[in-house]
């Protein structure tokens, strides 16, 4: 392309972290059996030559891992690099290729801590590039399309999977074997079709430039762990997590974040010892925990996670606890973000 045409296109940086979108299987029939995090970012970009029609694209390999192994240090490393790039005058948008298992956690983390209105789009795939009907190429094409579109600015961190534009706050991996894997209880924000975005909704919760959190002020994250609620549950896991150093425990509760009578006394004790107790729900898609329903949260000084699933509640608790150790203040943050 001539220089004049190139100058008109947006500059998009692709930060690669691994996942199935960079995966490879033994044969084209292997859609589910393969190794994640094999291909480098240059190969990913070379695999979709049409990206050059959308933007001036360059890649950086930030890490090369399957996303189930993502650590808090990895989150910080990635978020700090995103912040540096977002400040650069010659970057208009950022795409992050990521494994789908914890993609919803990273997208929400970035949504909370990046102080920019430039588009940040997180993307993955359900099938490796070597499989028949691989979904990574189109997902990546859509991510670059959204990241280079001025309309995407100021809408928080976005996720492009299966032709949909989802809010990084709301979206969650709800299905693990289909390409239609990512859903939000509140619906997608828009669609991308043939490189063009169509928008229908805006996020109502605080994010990015309107967030009180800033990655530049965060150098470490407190330990927050999750324990699961089910019939016949005991308090063993909760006590062990606290003993292991958890500053907050997310209760991945049944229904409305309900807590078994066998577990309640231990959680009241742990709260007295300074551990934050955050009631979330593990119902698939559409958990919604009400304060003082099911449990007397005011009396116990516990927090409810609102509509955040347990893994997203962990992210918000870690970020919030870089600023406050007060349960009432944590609750305000859980309502607002
Ligand atoms: N589809 C995927 O990307 C799954 C993979 N285990 C990952 O999260 O890295």
Q: Mean pLDDT, as a whole number?
A: 97
Could you describe the largest sheet, including whether it forms a barrel?
8 strands, mixed
Report the principal-axis shape. globular
* Strand content bin: 15-25%
Binding site for substrate: 67, 100-101
Catalytic activity: L-asparagine + H2O = L-aspartate + NH4(+); L-glutamine + H2O = L-glutamate + NH4(+)
GO molecular function: asparaginase activity; glutamin-(asparagin-)ase activity
EC number: 3.5.1.38
Quick recap:
By secondary structure, the protein is α/β, with parallel strands linked by helices. Helix content is 29%, strand content 20%.
How would you sum up this structure, described in words?
This protein is α/β, with parallel strands linked by helices. It has eleven helices and 14 strands. Helix 5 runs parallel beside helix 10. It starts with a helix and ends with a helix. The chain binds asparagine (ASN). The site of asparagine has 11 residues, from loops.
Topology, element by element:
Elements: H1 3-8, E1 10-18, H2 41-46, H3 51-54, E2 55-65, H4 72-87, E3 93-97, H5 103-113, E4 120-123, H6 136-147, E5 158-161, E6 164-167, E7 172-173, E8 182-183, E9 190-193, E10 196-199, E11 224-228, H7 236-243, E12 248-253, H8 264-272, E13 276-281, H9 297-300, E14 303-304, H10 310-320, H11 327-336
The structure holds asparagine (ASN).
Q: Which key features would you list for this structure?
A:
signal; alpha/beta; Glutaminase-asparaginase; L-asparaginase_N_sf; about 325 residues; asparaginase activity; binds asparagine; single chain
